[in-house]
Write a structure and sequence with these properties.
The complex is a heterodimer of chains A (215) and B (65). Chain A contains 12 helices and no strands.
Amino acid sequence: MKLKNFVNIMKNPREYFQKNKYKNSDTSDLVINAQSGDNLAMDELIRRYESYIYMRLYQLDPQNENIKDLMQDVMLRVARSLKSLKNPKRFQSWLSQIITNIFFDELRKKRRKMNTVSIDSFFSEEEENSKNEKELECPKDSPDKCSEASEMKRIIRRAISELEEPYRAAIVLRELQGFSYDEIANATGASVGTVKSRIARARQKLQTKLKDYLQ
Amino acid sequence: MNTECEYIQSRMHEYFDDELDYEMSLRIKKHLEHCSECREIYEKISKLSNLIKQSFNSSSESISL
């Protein structure tokens, strides 16, 4: 046992054991215990998936200033409706669906408030200002000259960010969140046929923008 | 490009995304075995998919709250 752990146990044994009760439990066990009303299991579940929730919301819209509010909404919904999850092994995909639903609910609310809403910018003003300079360092016709892989990743992320919102949402949900066409249709309120064409169109647009990287 | 290629290419994204039934998937799979033009299109979709995943996988590691 590490000295630090030993000191913590001696300081407040009850609190230490409570905090660590579920530290090594797998997600299914946490879900089952949380469903039967164990708050410690629920806390551990939320703690374990906090970064995941943030990452999913960030992928959908990196410029969203309300990500932390949306995270709270997601956590609240998880706590309120966890009992409805029938198969604990499917917790992550269930959570992913909640994240997407909350994101699009928020988007629809914003659209109602303002006739248009822009979620098209992936980059901060600072990044945008340095964009041209960085592009000079990485010529389009010779991507192999990019000194760092991170530069290429930045260019790919920017290409995605420049897609119009319906296309970006479709491709992000498909490629990064692994949603089926049906699930994307449910989340975005579009028909499956529309989802199909949005995904195809999004890929065509990205293939044009990123043709130097797809040789 | 013949009509079979046209049809196959119209379903290529669904095939890549595993959205087709078994019979249709098999038809496309067999076609890709002998048609280099359609196979090239499939490979481009696959490469793009990998690029997208890679571009976010590493960045997500650096996302902090």
